[in-house]
Amino acid sequence: LAARALGLADDEIRRGLSTFRPSPHRGAVLRLGGRTILDDCYNANPVSLATAAEALLALVGGRPWA
């Protein structure tokens, strides 16, 4: 929404988002040994941990490990 408010076109927004990389340990989705890992441990607190757990469930469903 901020990009649109600044007048950027959809293709410009798409290009920008395709190159986005989160800061280390902030919402990084990793694949390891057939498992999906959500690395969101930077400055973790109880609220952010609960939110990360909800995001992990949305990503993999089934029976995730935390």
Q: What does this entry look like structurally?
A:
The protein is of the alpha+beta class and 66 residues long. Helix content is 42%, strand content 15%. The protein is built from three helices and two strands. The chain has a two-stranded antiparallel ribbon with strand order 1-2. β1 (28-32) and β2 (35-39) form a beta hairpin. The chain is elongated, with a radius of gyration of 15 Å. The termini are far apart. The mean pLDDT is 85.
Secondary-structure map:
Elements: H1 2-5, H2 10-18, E1 28-32, E2 35-39, H3 46-60
Antiparallel strand pairs: 1-2
Helix content: 40-55%
Low-confidence stretches: none
Largest sheet: 2 strands, antiparallel
Q: On the 0-100 scale, what is the average pLDDT? A: 85
Alpha carbon gyration radius:
15 Å
How far apart are the first and last residues' alpha carbons, in Å?
Answer: 32 Å
Instruction: Indicate the proportion of strand residues.
Output: 15-25%
Succession of helices and strands: HHEEH
Strand order of the largest sheet: 1-2
Task: Give me the number of helical elements.
Answer: 3
Shape: elongated
Structural class: alpha+beta
Tally the beta strands.
Answer: 2
Task: Describe, in short, the structure shown.
The chain starts with a helix and ends in a 6-residue tail after the last helix. The chain is of the alpha+beta class and 66 residues long. It has helices at 2-5, 10-18, 46-60; strands at residues 28-32, 35-39.
